[in-house]
Task: inverse folding
């Protein structure tokens, strides 16, 4: 478990034999994880695969979407028709995992029904607690908010509802005094 | 472990089936009873001449917040708490109860609720249905009784309307069919005999349901067992536990305050360290894991006991 309870728990994707239907969702370099998972699925398992990204894996029956947004919309539509007994497996950037989990949360999928494996970029979506803007693809410990221009310190505190880490004004006490800005999320 | 007692007056007693009496508990002298959420229970203190019982009972329908209602099934071969309620407790009598505690709440994230009850296990469901009838989340109740003379609560619920299914005998209830094809985010709740709880969990897992969507409540009555002696190390007292007494009751009878909430082996509050043991523990709880039970270092005194020549507890 991470030190901070709100941070998502990740694992290497593995078939859950308790499930009856398996929905695999991948983005970017998550495709490789889905190929590995497919190879481990028992023969005849009820599996569906949804993918987005430039170099999709060659999986039979896979449905491919040009953008992440379209993939997430299809995930939403698919989950609305799924029945109890379904397991969801997600692989992709950490930001994508958060977005997919936010859709899963709508359908009350719990931690024993969803597995997430981070692949590729660990850049964070950062929510500005001051102006409520979302900052995508943040790789540094401090980021200038696209919404309000404040310099935000990127916390480890994560919101599943917002699928984002919390960003808090870094120089509120002493304006202009900022710690060294470093790339920490790759 | 605060157990501030609430005094109540028994304002009505009704024999509602051949086995079940319903008791209405009213507040005393202008006091108000605390509000409660569906699925809550209270501990009812029953002071028989020779001993005191503290039994958990689920609170029924939450609409009428002025009074509490409980339904008690008579157990002729039980330890005596339900018999005391059936034979001794009359309208106008005073009792003491604990504040409500909820170990069986509805999951508020659920997209659908399936309630399964057997016999007197309908009691928490009546409060849940009160909540669900006014809401947006779909639900259904599957209620099994032995036969028409036992269906008082089932008929009441049918009259109120809603998706209520009443079965005479458990053969009619096809769990695989009930649980099949339910939308994501469905939760199932079972209250009834141990066999029914196990059957629902088995059917749900067979349909691929994850455990976080399967809920049940089963208050184990402390089973009658062998007599034994227990030494309480911190209190430096040795206590005799007769066959019809629970370990917790025997500890309380000598004036030692021990923690508890449910008194039915469910909540984990009374977990106690075993310091020394010559013999074997008889675990009757639903709290400790199989490994912990085999390890012999922990016991739940509300329902579990021992067959031993020596038992020392950290209490």
Result:
């Amino acid at each position: 478990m991470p030190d901070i309870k709100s941070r998502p728990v990740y694992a290497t994707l593995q078939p859950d034999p308790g499930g009856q239907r398996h929905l695999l969702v991948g983005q970017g370099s998550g495709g490789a994880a889905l190929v590995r998972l497919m190879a481990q699925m028992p023969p005849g398992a009820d599996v569906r695969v949804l993918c987005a990204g430039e170099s999709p894996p060659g999986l039979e029956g896979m449905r491919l979407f040009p953008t992440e947004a379209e993939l997430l919309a299809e995930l939403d539509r698919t989950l609305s028709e799924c029945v109890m007994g379904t397991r969801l497996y997600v692989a992709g950037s950490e930001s994508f995992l958060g977005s997919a989990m936010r859709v899963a949360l709508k359908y009350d999928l719990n931690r024993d029904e969803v597995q997430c494996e981070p692949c590729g970029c660990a850049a964070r979506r950062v929510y500005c607690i001051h102006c409520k803007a979302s900052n995508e693809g943040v790789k540094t410990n401090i980021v200038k908010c696209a919404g309000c221009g404040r310099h935000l310190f990127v916390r480890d505190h994560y919101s599943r509802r917002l699928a984002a880490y919390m960003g808090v004004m870094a120089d509120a006490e002493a304006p202009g005094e900022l710690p060294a800005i470093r790339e920490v999320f790759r | 472990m605060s157990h501030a007692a609430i005094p109540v007056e028994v304002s009505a007693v009704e024999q509602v089936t051949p086995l079940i009496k319903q008791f209405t508990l009213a507040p005393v002298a202008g006091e108000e009873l605390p509000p409660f959420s569906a699925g809550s229970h209270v501990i009812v203190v029953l002071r028989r001449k020779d001993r005191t019982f503290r039994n958990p009972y689920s609170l029924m329908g939450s609409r009428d917040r002025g009074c509490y209602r409980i339904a008690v099934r008579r157990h002729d071969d039980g330890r005596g708490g339900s018999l005391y309620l059936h034979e001794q407790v009359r309208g106008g009598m005073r009792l003491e109860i604990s504040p409500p505690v909820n170990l069986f709440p509805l999951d508020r994230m659920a997209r659908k609720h399936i309630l399964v009850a057997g016999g007197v296990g309908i009691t928490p469901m009546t409060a849940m249905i009160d909540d669900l009838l006014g809401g947006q989340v779909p639900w259904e109740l599957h209620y099994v009784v032995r036969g028409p003379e036992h269906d008082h609560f089932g008929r009441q619920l049918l009259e109120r309307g809603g998706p209520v299914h009443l079965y005479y005998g458990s053969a009619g209830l096809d769990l695989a069919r009930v649980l099949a094809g339910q939308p994501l985010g469905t939760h199932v709740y079972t209250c009834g005999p141990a066999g029914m709880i196990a059957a629902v969990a088995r059917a749900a897992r067979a349909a691929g349901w994850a455990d976080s969507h399967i809920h049940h409540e089963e208050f184990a009555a402390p089973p009658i067992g062998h007599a034994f002696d227990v030494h309480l190390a911190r209190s430096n007292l040795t206590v005799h536990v007769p066959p019809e007494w629970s370990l917790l009751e025997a500890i309380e009878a000598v004036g030692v305050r021990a923690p508890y909430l449910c008194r039915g082996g469910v909540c984990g509050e009374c977990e106690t360290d075993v310091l020394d043991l010559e013999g074997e523990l008889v675990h009757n709880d639903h709290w400790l894991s199989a490994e912990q039970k085999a390890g012999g270092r922990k016991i739940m005194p509300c329902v579990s006991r021992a067959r031993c020549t020596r038992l020392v507890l950290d209490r």
User: Anything to note?
Assistant: Chain B touches chain A at residues 107, 109-111, 179-186, 204-205, 207-213 (CB under 8 Å).
